[in-house]
Amino acid sequence: MAKQEEFCLVPLSRNFSNMKIYNNSEALTRGSVIYPRSKETRNSTNFQLPSGGTPVTGIIAISLRTLLFGGSISIGNQEWMKSHLVFREPGSVFGYGLVTSKNNPGSVIMCVQAYVLKHLLFNNKDVPSGSTRDRDPLRPYRERQQQTLGLALSDIIWQAGTENSCCTVCLPGVQAHVERDLNYTPDGFTEKINLYEFHRKEDVVSFLTKYLNMFQQGTGSGVMLLLYSVILSRGITRVQEDLNGEYTELLTPVYEATQAIVTLVLTGKATPYLHNGVIRSLDEENTVKEHVGLMSRSDVGFLVWNRNDESSKQLGSRFKTPTFPIWVTHSQNKYGVLFHTRRDLTRDHRAEHRFDLHYYNGFLVHPEPTVITLDTRFNKTKDEYRMPVLERVILSKWQGAQVSWNDTTPYV
Q: Residue 126: its pLDDT value, please?
């Protein structure tokens, strides 16, 4: 007898008709998401889309491409379009790590990495009590890898939609819902996505766990699925308002990540500013302009150092001292993650006297882990011009600390 599957119903009610880029009355229809919870097809590549999704419309496809790439007539950058989310070898010394071979999409992949580490290191309630394989959180096996990636993506997508108490998850289909015209050139992906809306985070977790392989396929576009989901969860109009005129697109003309896209994935809001709270200034017409930075402490942090970049000097404590001791790093257009394995580093200043930081950047060329030791008890001046770039990033938070690379060659 065939096994019966349990199904969940989730209402779809989000309206995307009020957008800045294209302001017509076309909107998403209402429906229901029906998806199976059986584990049997979780890792299968021969799956069908869950019923109840809403096909992408022309207005949404054009708006997504325009917001990311600056237009919808030319096809978006293939480096971004073909990037996906895949782990290193399960149970290995880098079993916790996602892989990136290209630096531009690596900015988003490292943001996902930070949330994966959050659940691997500080959310062990779902690890089987009798399991010996997953006792080392940094050497997870496949089931734990998949579990934490699903939780990480759920965190990122759900927090972008929390102001509406709902979020949208995009999944790719086979059929194109948008045809070529004067305003849109098909890219083989955007016109095929289907949208699923959720009003409870636990439903998002179940759904993403079931269809996680769509974000991981080597021939797929997992990074773009995540970005589209986050943008639509936040709302296209809200994302444009977040940018505050600092950017018109989320990627630069050479397809590098702007600060806004990193902040969007890390916090759910696409602010280009790194300071705490709101700073007001006068523009050329003596009109007060508000610069809205981080309004609350971030779950995971962000550290940045770029030569001659004044914005990095404005980094506020809500990024420098996050809830969890995990920081996405950015220096000289290189992204990585610094993390400490104990929660008390961001809870008790005494834990910062002497401690280790692990560093990971997703590239496969580094065979051994990088563990850096910091000692903040003795402040000494240093020759900044001979200092490794990553060390400059570290000292942007722990000023004057002594940094030991523990016989590891500084490669950042």
A: 62
Q: What is the dihedral of CA 35, 40, 43, 47, to 10 degrees?
A: -50
What's the CA gap between 236 and 14, in Å, rounded?
A: 12
- 370 near 362, Cβ under 8 Å? no
The pTM of the full predicted model, rounded to 2 decimals, is 0.87
What is the C-alpha separation between 355 and 349, in angstroms, rounded? 11
For residue 254, what are the contacts with CB-CB under 8 A and spacing of at least 6? Answer: none
Question: Given pLDDT bands bounded at 50, 70 and 90, which one contains residue 379?
Answer: confident
Select from 208, 281, 287, 180 the least CA-distant residue to 10. Answer: 208
N residues, the chain: 412
Cα angle 291, 293, 296 (rounded to 5 degrees) comes to 145
DSSP 349: G
Q: How confident is the model at residue 91 (pLDDT cuts 50, 70, 90)?
A: very high
The answer on pLDDT for 383 being more than 60 is yes
Tokens of 252: 């630069």
- State how far the Cα of 221 lies from the Cα of 278, in Å rounded to an integer: 36
Q: In what order do the strands lie in the sheet with 167-172?
A: 54-55, 193-198, 167-172
Q: To the nearest 5 percent, what fractions of the chain are helix, strand and coil? A: 30, 20, 50
In sequence order, the β-bridge partners of residue 7 are 36
Rounded to whole angstroms, what are the CA distances from 282 to 22, 29, 243, 263? 30, 43, 17, 24
Burial of residue 149 (number of CB atoms within 10 Å: 0-12, 13-18, 19+): buried
**Locate tokens 């030319």: which residue?**
74
Q: Specify the 3-state DSSP secondary structure of 361.
A: coil
Pairing, β 167-172 against β 54-55: unpaired
Of 66-75, 128-137, 332-341, 396-405, the least confident: 128-137
The token pair at 140 is 């997870």
Residue-wise pLDDT for 328-353, tens only, equals 999 988 999 999 999 999 888 888 99
- Measured CA to CA, the distance from residue 337 to residue 357 in angstroms comes to 10
